[in-house]
Structure formats: C-alpha cells, structure tokens
Amino acid sequence: MNISFTKYQGTGNDFIMLDNRNHLYSDLTTEQIKYICDRRFGIGGDGLILLENIEEVDFKMVYYNADGNESTMCGNGGRCITMFAHQLHVIQNITTFLAIDGKHQASVLKDEIKLQMNNVLRVKVIDKNYELNTGSPHYVSFVEQVQSFPVFDKGKEIRNNDTYIKEGINVNFVEVLSTNHIYVRTYERGVEDETLSCGTGCTAAAISYHKKYIHQEGNQCIYITTPGGNLQVHFFANETGYTDVWLEGKATKVFEGTIII
C-alpha cells in the first residue's frame, strides 16, 4: 500500500498528515499507524492525523498517538491540520472543524495558526499541583530549573501511578520565568516520552499559572516557551472558569512523500 503524506510540526510537536477525503486510509490498523510514526522504521512523528470530509463543518480531524491508538484532542495537531487544510485549499483563512472533543474555530495568520480550545470550568488542586482537561487530561506541576528537571522519569512515574495508569494523563512541568511568561516541558501519554511541545499541555499550564499566581479576572495572555519554540495562550478568566481560550503559534510544513507499507 502506497501512502502519500505530508509532515508538519508545531513548535517541534511533529505529525504525519494524511488527506483522507476519499477514504483511502480509513482502514489503517493500529500496528500500521504505529509503524508509520516510528522514527527508525517509518516516517517518524508524535502522531498521525487524518483530514476527512464532514458535512456540517469544513473538515474533520482524526488524531492518533504514536502508539497507534486514537486519542483525545491535540492542540498543536489542531494547528497543524489547519495549516494543512489551508495549503490543500480546503479552507481559506478562517475555519471551523470537528475534532474528538467537538468543534473548533481557527484562523491562519501567515505562518501562525490561532486555534480555539475548549472552555475549562474545573481545575482540581492536588496538593500544590493541578489537574484539568483542555481537550486532553493534564497534570501540571510547578518546579524550579525546569530545563534540568528529570521530566521523563518524573513524568512517567506520575502517568503510571495508581490514579492515572488506566486512562493515562499528560504531565507538565512548569517554571515561571517572569510575569505572564512560563517555560513548559511535557511528558505525553501515547508517546510515552517527552515531546518538544504539547498544545493542550501549554494551555493547561497557562490556566494553572493564572490560577496559582495571577487570580485577576478579564482577558489574559500567557507567553510560553517550550523546548520546541514559543506559543501564546489567550483566555477570559472569571469566577466561573476560563472561556474564549485560544492557542497561538507557528505551524510549519516540513516535507512530503510516499511510504510503502
């Protein structure tokens, strides 16, 4: 089977994009997807994303983790598929698409994508850490000197503890750099390793930072540095939660080609 693909990355979070509007790739198995995502034997990526037709919106996003299993929302993947759809001329500069967690709006801003995320109305405080769902479940822990922090070991430990081992959780370690500027590193379930960036994780980290340190109501913008690049998270905060949440950053085409499986 010949598979035509395009590789994209959003702040180092990389994805294999397949145009599935003609249902050419609907029967890919878990093992085939895992093979395609393998960095030694396949193309290599943190995940694989299908772009599909759907009547009520511009397109549908179907996201698979690198382990071959369909997963919950991926923020950087959502930004990358928006750029993919734009470059396929499926959309122009503004779109609404469907993902596993519902409808998302997005805008193309030259080489950046601004993606609307789900509202967050519940943030659970666990000791000094935070648990919330931004389309995917996240655990957020604030640490010192995050660039030298053992993210893989500590992230794996939390992801596989008795509370989270069944469903899994993404684990984010956050350092405050300055007011409204944080550094985020993430251990991702499904990849089972640290990724260079995680969109839903950065969104979770930004909201947790606001809850822990800022507390102010109104429109907020949090600047985020990750090992793969820079993002911004915008939202409106009030006593009921976080609404009008947007994730903004670059989404870049890397290369395209064909793989035989």
Features:
Diaminopimelate Epimerase, Chain A, domain 1, 46% strand, 4 helices, alpha+beta, 17-stranded mixed sheet, 261 residues, 18% helix
Set down the secondary structure blueprint.
Layout: E1 2-10, E2 13-19, H1 30-37, E3 47-52, E4 59-65, H2 75-87, E5 94-99, E6 102-109, E7 112-116, E8 124-126, E9 129-133, E10 137-142, H3 151-159, E11 170-178, E12 181-188, E13 193-195, H4 199-214, E14 218-226, E15 229-238, E16 241-250, E17 252-260
Parallel strand pairs: 2-3, 4-5, 10-11, 12-14
Antiparallel strand pairs: 1-2, 1-17, 3-4, 5-6, 6-7, 7-16, 8-9, 9-10, 11-12, 12-13, 14-15, 15-16
Q: Calculate Rg over CA atoms.
A: 18 Å
Oligomeric status: single chain
CATH architecture descriptor of the largest domain: Roll
Number of helices: 4
CATH topology of the largest domain: Diaminopimelate Epimerase, Chain A, domain 1
Range of strand content: over 45%
| Overall mean pLDDT | 97
Q: Which spans have pLDDT < 50 for at least 5 consecutive residues?
A: none
Query: Shape from CA axes?
Result: globular
Number of strands: 17
Structure described in brief:
By secondary structure, this protein is of the alpha+beta class. It has helices spanning 30-37, 75-87, 151-159, 199-214, and strands spanning 2-10, 13-19, 47-52, 59-65, 94-99, 102-109, 112-116, 124-126, 129-133, 137-142, 170-178, 181-188, 193-195, 218-226, 229-238, 241-250, 252-260. The protein contains four helices and 17 strands.
